[in-house]
Each structure stands twice: as structure tokens, then as C-alpha cells.
Amino acid sequence: EISQLSHYLQPHISIITSIGNAHVGNFGTVQDVANEKLSIIDAMGTDNTNTDNTNTDAMGTDNTNTKSGGILIVNRRTVAPYITDDYATRLRHKNITLLMYDAETDDNRRHSHTDNDTSCTIAQNITTTMNTRTNLGDHATPQPLFTTTFNIATQEQTYPATIHHPYSHNATNTAMCVSLLQGIQQMQQQRDPQGGRYTHLDIPTMLSNLSNVHISQGRGGLIILRHPNASLGSSRNNGDAVIIFDDTYNASLETVISSIRELSSISIPHNHTSTHPSGSVQKYAILGPIAEIDNHQVATYRTILEECCKHPSIRFFLCDSNDSSDSSDSAPSEKNTPTHKGYRHAYTTLKATNPQLSVKNVKTFADKRGMMEELKSRNSYESGTTHIFLVKASNSYGYHTIIKDLKEL
Predict the structure, then answer these.
(1) Measuring CA to CA, which residue among 92, 85, 87, 77 is closest to residue 36?
(2) What's the CA dihedral at 393, 394, 396, 402 to 10 degrees?
(3) Which of 70, 114, 277, 374 pairs with 357 at a CA distance of 20 to 30 A?
(4) Closest CA to 236 of 404, 387, 373
């Protein structure tokens, strides 16, 4: 449908944020996913190989004398490697400018045929801190629990930026927004060099506005049932904290692994100046099924389970939810089929092939009901402890109900 929609819209600027295993069951291979996403190129720009001089696009803009055929913005790590010589040739023929964005990490130096750091906007020096010094009183609104600071480095300048969420990919998405702004400015300059038709777009102002963006529930939104060091007069002892990351809208192999690593990296500083120190931290990851992976199930769930074993400080509750009586929510067809090979299958085969592997921090469940009974039976919700829950699954499996259950728990 990307090909169909893009030919209808004929976009001036296109952004491809990632190419990976999401929806791979509908396509067959990741390369097939890449081909579908990159088909957006065919609907962009002025083709130098086309002798037709009629170049009015869907927005009514006459591109006959336009020097640029548009802007394509891609993630350098997850998309650029799929831009082969053939796609690079198409970009040149259509006069499409390629801009890239990325986050600075130890392993992001993979290059494609089109890689050029001078056109890449990078989120650098990403640092997340947690605010545990807030005392709420009986009616106050807590300050942002997390503050992530970083720099956005463009070819011309470096800008300071802040967001209030610990997921580092939001810093990467901020770099993408800056690339978008640069793309708009480039098109403005090319179409109207005198600057009379367009308003100047301000990167610092945009970054300031982005610092106030609220991450929506289901997309990693934070649910703070009790803030560290809060004094709310509840039945819990002062100093307790319960934080839930609601990531129940979407899941793929890459995003599940990323979320596990983000959860593992979160640290709660001990607040020595507070009357009620935050104390210890206990982390839980509740992972449900991934939709639209079909014959990639075995490899996907095994890879996730192997990642779980690398994080012994997290207690993992992995649920297959393949019991048809488990939920009234509509779920993908593979949910109830006998060929479903989810977390329990991965657990069994991984233990069989790696008997020395420690999986003490992992429990697997056939359905959500059994998993919640296990959570309710635990007596480990100690006072003075910060409890952090990650809940992640594909939306069609209805794991938003787990959020509700956790609130009651």
C-alpha cells in the first residue's frame, strides 16, 4: 500500500524511519519489506529519463523548472544499508536529495553505498537522569520523572536538546525532525531563492517545542502510580515507587530488544537528601506475542529469549496468549493455531541446546490469566523499592488489559 498511496500523493518529502522485521510475515523477507518501503522513491521527483514536461504534482505545484525532485530522509543505520546502487541511481535520475539521521553509538558505523556523514544529522552524548527529589504533597503534579539531554549535530552547527523520556530512540527521532526541517528549508531555498514565499523555520524553537512532547500510552508512555519519594498518604510506605512503561501498541523483534535494553539501562539514583530514600530497584518485563511474523516465529522468539538471558537484573514474564478463551480482543490468526511457536517453545529448545544457560530470571506462560495470577501471588513488592514494569506486545493481542491489571495490583 505504500506504493499505491505514494503515487496518489506524489510527496515532496518522504521519511523512512526503519526497515526491519515488523510485518515480515506479510512479505516473506526483510528485503521484501525494504523494497515496499523504498517504492516511495518511484512516486517522488522529476525523472531526468522522462521526456514528458508535464510535472504538476498532487499538491498543484509545477515542478517543470524545479532543480530538486524532492527530499528523502532515512535512518542511517536501519534504512541506508538497503539503498543499493540501483536505488541510488533512481535517486540521482529523479533529482532526489538524500538526508540521513542517526544516534551516536559504538556500533553505528555501518555504511551503505550512499553514506555521507556531511548529510547526516546525529543525536550525540545522550544521557538520561531520573528525578527522585520531588515531594508531591497531597495535590501537586510531579516534575518529569526522566530527563534525557543530548546534542543534535548538523553539518553547520550543534544544538542542545532535552526530552522527558528515557528511551534513547526518541533522541534519534528528534534528529529525524531536524533533518525534516533541513529538508523543508532546502526545498524552500531551491524553489524560492529570495525567500519571499516562505517563513524561516527555526531549529532551536522546534527543539524547545519537542521537549514538551508527551509520549502517548501504548507507545512507551509512562504511568506513574507512585513517584519516588512522594508523600501521598497511601497505604504504601513512603518511598515506594511504581512506574509502568505502556508499550502495548506495537512490537517487532527490533523494538522488543531495544525496549529490554532501555529498561536495563535505567538507574535510580539514591537520594541522600530525601526524608524517604528511593532504596532498591526491581524491574519487570512483561512481553506478549508479536503479530505478522508467521514462519519467522522460531527465530524471533529465540532471539528475544537469548536477549532476556543477558539481563539477569530484570524479571521476565513471557506470555504466548494462544488460549482462545484468554481474551475477548481480536488477535492475529496465528494466536490460536496449534503451530504457534512462541516463548514457551523458544524456552524449551534453548534449554535443550544450552543446558548451562541461566534462565532463572525468565518465566513463560500460556495465557495472560496465568501470568497475572503469578504476579499477584508474589510477595516481593517490598516497601522502599522502586518497581519498574515494561509491558510490550503487538496491539492486536490486547495487552492494554495488563496495564489495567497492574494498576489494580
Answers:
(1) 87
(2) 20
(3) 374
(4) 387
CA separation for the pair 270, 278 (Å, rounded): 6
Question: 68: which DSSP letter?
Answer: -
Q: Left, alpha or beta for 28 (phi > 0: left; psi -120 to 50: alpha)?
A: left
Please list the pLDDT of the chain residue by residue as tens digits (409 residues): 888 899 898 899 999 999 988 888 888 888 999 999 999 999 887 655 443 444 554 444 454 444 458 899 999 999 999 999 999 999 999 989 999 999 876 544 444 334 444 579 999 999 888 776 544 433 344 567 788 999 999 888 899 999 988 888 889 999 999 999 988 888 877 777 776 666 677 899 999 988 888 887 788 888 877 655 443 333 344 446 788 999 998 899 999 999 999 999 887 765 533 434 445 788 999 999 998 888 888 999 999 999 999 999 999 999 997 443 444 344 444 444 434 689 998 888 888 888 877 788 999 999 888 898 888 886 455 566 788 999 999 988 889 989 888 888 7
Using alpha carbons, select from 10, 2, 15 the residue that is nearest to residue 180: 15
Nearest-Å Rg of the Cα atoms of the chain is 24
Instruction: Write down the H helix ranges in 78-144.
Output: 85-93
Per DSSP, 350 falls in state: H
What single-letter DSSP state applies at residue 250? -
CA-based nearest residue to 37, from 57, 56, 23:
23
Contact present, 104 and 45 (Cβ < 8 Å): no
Rounded Cα gap, residues 48 and 51, in angstroms: 8
Cell (9 digits) for 361: 530470571
Question: 392, 358 in Cβ contact below 8 A?
Answer: no
N-term to C-term CA, the chain = 42
| Rounded distance between C-alpha atoms, residue 231 and residue 157, angstroms | 44
Provide the grid cell at 318. 513471557
Q: Which of 220, 228, 218, 287 is nearest to 257 (CA)?
A: 287
Question: In Å, how far are 117, 269, 277, 375, 403 from 273, measured between CA atoms?
Answer: 45, 11, 8, 33, 32
What are the residues facing 62 on neighbouring strands? 56
